[in-house]
Amino acid sequence: MYVRFVADHARPFPGARVLDVGCGTGDIARFLGDVEYVGIEPNDDYVASAQRNLGEHGRVFRGGIERVAELTALPYDLILFIGVLHHLSDELVSRHVGELADCLAPGGRLVAIEATLFEDQPFLPRTFARFDRGKYVRTPRAYRDLLCAEFSDVRTFLRGDLLRFPYVHCVIEVST
């Protein structure tokens, strides 16, 4: 999944400053190439695992979306949300979306990949999305609307080819 997602959507350039919000164990970092990687993650066990996995190739901080403002000493070229937004309420995302915009470098991008629901969705992908642990699985339009408060260029893509089983992701690309 990460190979296609990075090649088709994240597209980091060498030396890019990347912020991975909700980074988990930092698995995506090895697919990003030569970048300056910073992750934030609320789960202590994942933070420890991510730091072991990354070694000296990145930094990981404990926290969630509310820590973004603390980590903006350098603007980021790319902010990633990998399966995170569907765990966050509209209120929480709305409260911090301005901070996300503020910490992007000129020409920077925010890219997310999320569980989604949509009209005429096939049965199995819809069932998988409905049983996701995230309480805020949204339609592509709802993801877009959530980010349009601060960003004018928000695009969504449905991807059913990233996993080996029938699952449809919503990829959200935001440009400054």
Please tell me about this protein's structure.
The protein is an alpha/beta fold and 176 residues long. It has a single domain, classed as Vaccinia Virus protein VP39 (Rossmann fold). The chain has five helices and seven strands; from the N terminus they run αββαββαβααββ. It has a seven-stranded mixed sheet, with helices on both faces. It is globular. The relative contact order is 0.16.
Which percent range describes the beta-strand content? Answer: 25-35%
Secondary structure tally, helices:
5
| Largest sheet, spatial ordering of strands | 3-2-1-4-5-7-6
Anisotropy-based shape: globular
Annotation, overall tally of beta strands: 7
CATH architecture: 3-Layer(aba) Sandwich
The CATH class is identified as Alpha Beta
- CATH topology label: Rossmann fold
Distance between the termini: 26 Å
Counting structural domains, the number is: 1
Q: Write down the overall mean pLDDT.
A: 95
